[in-house]
Structures are given as structure tokens and as C-alpha cells.
């Protein structure tokens, strides 16, 4: 099996045929595609987009009036990699007033005015919602598949994605999106028969289609991204990553796309010397888009990398996935970052401490990441993290607050341990994962249809967690985590 797949991979990498489902190239090659926003600092927003030619001066005009975009920000870095048809552009919009409606226009002969709301300052106690999607993937003509993984049709790109559709439909109900890993599933080109001899192009076509489909959401809301296993390589077959074409190894597209748009850390406003010192240390150790943090209103959010850069990391050298990617920092850098960053938080200002990564360690089924648990669980517990968000398993799951395999006896009523959720049922070619048995601490699971989660930051002590069915908006599970502060 592996031999056959390797042979296909080599044939695919040669790119003999060109009949993959690429989107049409616009005749004006400065036309922006694949737009994506992110919070860059308390007063900055980054705009990322791709073009079908290299830009010598990538610019964005912006302002608070749609008809007078008085400010302009530019960048001269427009980057690509072998096998990509597009160039990735990124610009940082500076000097923004907090929580304010802005309009922006990517400078091009063929672009329109879009909008975003600038970040809410840390300490702003206005309630807000966030959407969580993981394991999203591209959808075909009729909506990809609403059934289980046995019945996978071929990918036909079209804007029929039920979870992206739900995010678009509810765009006014949440203020940003958290997506820790597994975006396009470009490395699953191998699952579509007609792509088998043309992997190199099919991989790029899936990326282009996916990020085009996502643009109506990611181009108007900050879309905060960290890596998953499907960003690693041209495919998931163990021991064969050296066969991948140059450009489709080692998280290349992910780095090109999000490396300049994700934040590093937000500066500390604390008067405490020790919080300041930890914030400085965290800023030096952050490594976006792999591990980084940001603040928004009542929340401090840390996004981290469950794929590489810790002991026995699954996608690292000799890791269980045998993908041989990374490292992206020096040994121990990521965990040192997490310790410093979590120790820099003023919990009066941002009471909610949220972490988001790709692979879970509390999960129904057999996808618990032991090395992740060993590397991260105690750091999160000791820092008083409230909620840990994961995906990787393709369904929705909620767990009681847990530590070292034991349920916190307080449950959702002021626990010491972090609560755990998996929001991995958003979509993708691999379909949903069926769960067959229960596990310690599980309080909810859903695998019948695509789903995603939302958080409601109500006040400093109450955090709503909801799971929704993507196709209908049906509320599947609703809970409130209570934390006593002060
Ligand atoms: C302008 O952009 C739209 C999509 O935003 C595209 O369909 C159209 O082909 C583009 N026009 C030109 C002249 O490139
Ligand atoms: C936040 O989510 C809750 C629960 O779904 C909803 O009732 C509320 O309207 C949302 N807030 C906004 C501003 O949309
Ligand atoms: C933490 O934040 C609160 C609220 O903004 C502020 O009053 C307090 O001085 C801060 N504490 C430290 C140690 O910075
Ligand atoms: C990976 O495994 C090989 C063979 O067992 C070993 O020689 C090498 O030191 C290992 N590398 C790491 C980084 O663990
Ligand atoms: C992956 O990229 C990082 C940094 O860009 C580099 O340090 C590392 O050696 C690369 N890993 C492999 C396996 O090529
Ligand atoms: C697992 O058991 C708990 C406690 O009995 C229950 O609340 C939960 O719904 C169960 N989970 C599943 C997936 O059946």
C-alpha cells in the first residue's frame, strides 16, 4: 500500500496532467483573492491576501468612513514558493482606535471596499462572542458530505460549505474566529481519484479554492490561525515527506500565508515588574504563526503548536506521524514561551485565560495526544487556564474540567482545572469521526452532522460555551463555565 502510494506521489509530483479544479485566474492579476484579517496589536490589524502576480508595493487604504479612506499602509514583501500560482501579501494597518468600525480597500484595479471592527482593548468588559472552527476543509458542489467517512465523493469546488455558510450567515453574532489547525486539507488530494496523477497541482488548487471560499468570513473578521497536521506536508503518508515537491513540505504554505499576519504578543500594561518581565520574555519567545498570544476585552488567548517543537511532537523528527517537520524554534522555546506568556497575564484586566491548539489529550476515541499532554497540561493547570480548545477529532465534544485524567470535583462551578472542548466537526474531505465509547469526563459529544462552537464572554465570571449544527444553526449543547474572581 505504502509503495503504491509513494509511486503515485512521485507521479503526482511530476504534475504531468493539468486537469485539476483550479479557480480561474482573473485577467487583472492584481485582483485580491483569499483575503484574511488578524489582530496584530491592540491598535493594529493585519490584512493578508494573495494575487496571481507579484506586487512590488502591496497597499491597503483604510479609514472610518467608507467614502474617505484617509490612511494607507504598504509593504514591499510579496512572497511565493515553488508550485504555488499565487503570491502572498501582508500589510499592517496601524494607529487604529479600539473597537471601531473601519473600512478598507486593498489597492488594485479590481477591488472593492470591505470592513472590519478593530480590536477591543484588554480590560474592556463589553460582552462578546467568538466562533471556533477546527478541521474545516473545502466543500464540493452539493456540500461536501453530511455523512460519515465511508461515503466520500470527489471534491468539486463551490461555495456550499455548511460551516463556512454558518459563519457567513451569523457574521454579526461574533467578533472573531479562532482556528487552531487543519484548514484546506490540501494534502488529501490523494483521496480524489481524478487528482491521483496530478498531486502537485491538486494540492495548490485545493488551497486556492478553500481560501477563496473562506474570504467572505476571514476578510471581515479577524481569523486567528495556528497549525494542524494537515498544514505539514503534501500528504500524510509516513516516511515519504522527502518525496513531496519543494514548496509542499514543512508548513510552507501556512508560513507564507499567516507568518506575517499573526501577532507575536500584545504588550503588557501592567505596573507589576514581574508581569512586565514575563511579558518581555514571552514577546521574545513567541513565534507566530506557530505559538503566540493576543488580548481582546476580557480575554487573553494563547495559540500553540501541537505538531512540532516539544518532546516527541507528533509531526517533528521521529514523531508518531513520521512527517519529519519543524523545528521552528530552539529546543524548549515553545514551552518557555507558554510559561512566560501565561505568567504575564493580569487576571483583573483579562480574567479569561483561553488556550487553543490542534491535537487534544482528552477525547473520545483513540486520538489522545500523549506527548502534548506531557508537554502542556501542567503548564496550563498551574497558570489557571479556564478553557482549552482543540480539534483533530472530527466531531464535537465537551469535557468536564480535568487534570491528569481526573475530573475536577467542582465541575463547571469554579473549578481549578481547565475545561476542555473539541470543535473538530466543522467539515473536510475525511468526513465525520464516529465515537463509539465514553471516556472519563465527557459530558457531551455529537457526530451526526457538521458542527462548530461559539463562546460567549458574558462577564468576568461567566463564559458560555455552545455547540451548533452548521447546516441548521440548531443549538446542540449549551453550558456556562463559572469562575469566581478576586
Ligand atoms: C475582478 O474580480 C472578480 C472577483 O472579485 C473577478 O470575478 C473578475 O474576473 C475580476 N476582473 C478582472 C478584470 O480581473
Ligand atoms: C452571542 O451569542 C448568544 C448565544 O448564541 C446570542 O444570544 C447573542 O445574541 C450573541 N451576541 C451577539 C452580539 O450577537
Ligand atoms: C491589573 O489590571 C487592573 C485593571 O486594569 C489594574 O487596576 C491593576 O493595577 C493591574 N494590576 C497590575 C499588577 O498591573
Ligand atoms: C531519531 O531517530 C534516529 C534513529 O533512531 C536517531 O538516530 C536520532 O537521534 C533521532 N532524532 C531525534 C531528534 O530524536
Ligand atoms: C522547517 O523549517 C524550519 C524554519 O523555517 C527549519 O528550521 C527546519 O529545519 C525545517 N525542517 C525541515 C525538516 O526541513
Ligand atoms: C458519557 O457519560 C457521561 C456521564 O454519564 C454523560 O453525561 C455523557 O453524555 C456521556 N457521553 C457520551 C458521548 O455518551
Automatic annotation (TrEMBL):
Residues 1-18 form the signal peptide. GO terms for molecular function: acid phosphatase activity; metal ion binding. Residues 169-395 form the Calcineurin-like phosphoesterase domain. InterPro entries: Calcineurin-like_PHP (IPR004843), Metallo-depent_PP-like (IPR029052), MPP_PAP (IPR041792), PAPs-like (IPR039331), PAPs_C (IPR025733), PAPs_N (IPR015914), Purple_acid_Pase-like_N (IPR008963). It is an enzyme of class 3 (hydrolase). Pfam families: Metallophos (PF00149), Metallophos_C (PF14008), Pur_ac_phosph_N (PF16656). Residues 32-116 form the Purple acid phosphatase N-terminal domain. Residues 417-478 form the Purple acid phosphatase C-terminal domain. Keywords: Glycoprotein, Hydrolase, Signal. Its EC number is 3.1.3.2. It catalyses: a phosphate monoester + H2O = an alcohol + phosphate. It comes from the Eukaryota. Belongs to the metallophosphoesterase superfamily. Purple acid phosphatase family. This is Purple acid phosphatase. It comes from Neohortaea acidophila. The lineage of its organism: Eukaryota, Fungi, Dikarya, Ascomycota, Pezizomycotina.
Amino acid at each position: 500500500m505504502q509503495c503504491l502510494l509513494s509511486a503515485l506521489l512521485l507521479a503526482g509530483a511530476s504534475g504531468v496532467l493539468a486537469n485539476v479544479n483550479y479557480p480561474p485566474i482573473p485577467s487583472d492579476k492584481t485582483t485580491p483573492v483569499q483575503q484574511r484579517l488578524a489582530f496584530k496589536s491592540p491598535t493594529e490589524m493585519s490584512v493578508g491576501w494573495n494575487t496571481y502576480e507579484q506586487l512590488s508595493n502591496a497597499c491597503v487604504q483604510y479609514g472610518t468612513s467608507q467614502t474617505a479612506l484617509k490612511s494607507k499602509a504598504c509593504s514591499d514583501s510579496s512572497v511565493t514558493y515553488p508550485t504555488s500560482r499565487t503570491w502572498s501579501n501582508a500589510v499592517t494597518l496601524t494607529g487604529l482606535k479600539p473597537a471601531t468600525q473601519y473600512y478598507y480597500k486593498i489597492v488594485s484595479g479590481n477591488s472593492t471596499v470591505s470592513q472590519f471592527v478593530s480590536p477591543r482593548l484588554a480590560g474592556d468588559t463589553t460582552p462578546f462572542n467568538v466562533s471556533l472552527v477546527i478541521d474545516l476543509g473545502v466543500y464540493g458542489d452539493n456540500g461536501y458530505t453530511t455523512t460519515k467517512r465511508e461515503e466520500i465523493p470527489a471534491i468539486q469546488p463551490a461555495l456550499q460549505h455548511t460551516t463556512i455558510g454558518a459563519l457567513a450567515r451569523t457574521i454579526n453574532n461574533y467578533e472573531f474566529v479562532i482556528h487552531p489547525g487543519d484548514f484546506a486539507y490540501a494534502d488529501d488530494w490523494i483521496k480524489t481519484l481524478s487528482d491521483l496523477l496530478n498531486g502537485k497541482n491538486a494540492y495548490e488548487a485545493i488551497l486556492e479554492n478553500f481560501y477563496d471560499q473562506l474570504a467572505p468570513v476571514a476578510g471581515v473578521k479577524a481569523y486567528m490561525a495556528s497549525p494542524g497536521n494537515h498544514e505539514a506536508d503534501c500528504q500524510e503518508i509516513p516516511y515519504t515527506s522527502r518525496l513531496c515537491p519543494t514548496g509542499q513540505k514543512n508548513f510552507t504554505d501556512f508560513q507564507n500565508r499567516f507568518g506575517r499576519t499573526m501577532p507575536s504578543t500584545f504588550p503588557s500594561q501592567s505596573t507589576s515588574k514581574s508581569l512586565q518581565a514575563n511579558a518581555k520574555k514571552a514577546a521574545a519567545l513567541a513565534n507566530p504563526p506557530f505559538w503566540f498570544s493576543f488580548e481582546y476585552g476580557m480575554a487573553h488567548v494563547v495559540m500553540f503548536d501541537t505538531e512540532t517543537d516539544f518532546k516527541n511532537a507528533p509531526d517533528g523528527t521521529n514523531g508518531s506521524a513520521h512527517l519529519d517537520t519543524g523545528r521552528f524554534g530552539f529546543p524548549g522555546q515553545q514551552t518557555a514561551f507558554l510559561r512566560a506568556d501565561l505568567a504575564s497575564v493580569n487576571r483583573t484586566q483579562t480574567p479569561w485565560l483561553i488556550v487553543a491548539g490542534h491535537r487534544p489529550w482528552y477525547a473520545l476515541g483513540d486520538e489522545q495526544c500523549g506527548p502534548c499532554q506531557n508537554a502542556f497540561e501542567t503548564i496550563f493547570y498551574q497558570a489557571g487556564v479556564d478553557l482549552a480548545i482543540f480539534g483533530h477529532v472530527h466531531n464535537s465534544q465537551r469535557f468536564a474540567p480535568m487534570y491528569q485524567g481526573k475530573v475536577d470535583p467542582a465541575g463547571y462551578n469554579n473549578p481549578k482545572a481547565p475545561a476542555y472542548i473539541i470543535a473538530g466537526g466543522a467539515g473536510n474531505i475525511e468526513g465525520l469521526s464516529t465515537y463509539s465509547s465514553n471516556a472519563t469526563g465527557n459530558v457531551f459529544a455529537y457526530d451526526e452532522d457538521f458542527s462548530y462552537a461559539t463562546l460567549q464572554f458574558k462577564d468576568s465570571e461567566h463564559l458560555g460555551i455552545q455547540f451548533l449544527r452548521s447546516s441548521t444553526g440548531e443549538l446542540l449543547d449549551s453550558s456556562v463555565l463559572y469562575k469566581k474572581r478576586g
